[in-house]
Design a protein that fits this description.
The structure is a single chain. This protein has 102 residues and is an alpha+beta fold. The protein has a domain of 68 residues: Ubiquitin-like (UB roll). It has a five-stranded mixed sheet. Strand 3 and strand 4 form a beta hairpin. The longest helix has 13 residues. The mean pLDDT is 89.
């Protein structure tokens, strides 16, 4: 008999990546964050807000203004379920500014 809830983690380890000025504000480009089993990008931001309110404020403002992109495993969250995109154990969530060049 399988254990109740087998295969469904009660917590998720998610990798948070930030780039550009956000990296300077966060003082690292990547961090592992532990979230509850039903985590979304919105709950990831709540976790960030608890430890680094200024970073969370800049991310939320950048997303609202359309300046920042949020990628989940390389896919733009706007084409998923935006901030309500459900996260899975091992996912990478990246917040990055537009890239320019020529």
């Amino acid at each position: 008999m399988a254990a109740q809830g087998a295969g469904e983690p009660s917590r998720l380890d998610v990798s948070l990546k930030v780039f550009g000025a956000l990296r300077d504000l966060h003082q690292t480009s990547e961090e592992s964050i532990v979230l509850g089993a039903d985590a979304t990008i919105r709950s990831l931001l709540a976790s960030v807000r608890a430890t680094n309110p200024e970073l969370a404020k800049r991310i939320e403002s950048g997303l609202a203004d359309g300046y920042l992109s949020c990628l989940v495993n390389g896919r733009n969250a706007r084409f998923l379920q935006d901030l309500d995109t459900t996260l899975q154990d091992g996912d990478t969530v990246a917040f990055l500014p537009p890239v320019g060049g020529g």
